Amino acid sequence: MLEVLQSTIDGIAVGSIIALAAVGLTLTYGILRLANFAHGDILTLGAYLAFLANTTLKLDIWLSIALGSGISIALVLLCEKILWQPLRAKRATSTTMMIVSIGLALVIRNAIILVWGTKPQKYNLPTFPAIDVFGLAITRNKIVVIIAAIAIIAGLYYLLQNTKIGKAMRAVADNPELAKVAGINVNAVIIWTWVIAGGMTAFGGSMYGLITNLRPNMGWFLILPMFAAVILGGIGNPYGAIAGALIVGISQEVATTCPVALGELQKYCIGTDYKLGVGLVIMILVLLFKPQGLFKGTI
Which pTM value belongs to this model? Predict the structure, then answer.
């Protein structure tokens, strides 16, 4: 039971990171109708930019994370200007834009490999012993990740529910043409969507770097759990994506736990190499039995 509880805590930490990225993914789809496969590599880029600031510029880790997230936001806004905006103007199909996003993902990933190589990297941080809570080993970084994710998500909730731009984003997600007729600045909404999506995703990548080593393909491996979370929570629903991310994160960790008490039966356990398969199974089951997701797919 302790091993399962330990895996659950690990799953909450991973799920919190997936939630930060999945919210950005579902916002870009809900408002821009873009299934952005470059989203995972933006997560990776944010982590590596924070790594650069932390190890090369010798900045404090939180300042490094802020700098990495800011540069990532600038990058996604540049992509909006030179890539997505012209494609929308030419009325490119969703399939075309999806293929372009895959190409963008490859460009970002190989640029990371060109600059930092394929060797795993890690932040320059002091190490602390894990905190023992009733036999469970909880690292300080995982606690920080969970608290930071809760704070960011709470801020997003306030923005969407109580600010003018948040209400405008919800209106555009429901009906872009009607929102434009009503006088809403759709272009401003698009910019804010990219700022929020890029910032949260890059921040999530930096948080991921706190609990694991950085690798150029880590975002690509997280893209499937992100999509699984988005589909599970209802496409276009950021709160549903958060719930879906926690379900996926916990399921992946718990399903691949193999308690010592099983003895000889351990050989029948699912190995940790199959974590991504758990997310895939969840996504397939949801599409088969409830394709609209567990929650209504709208902001």
Answer: 0.89
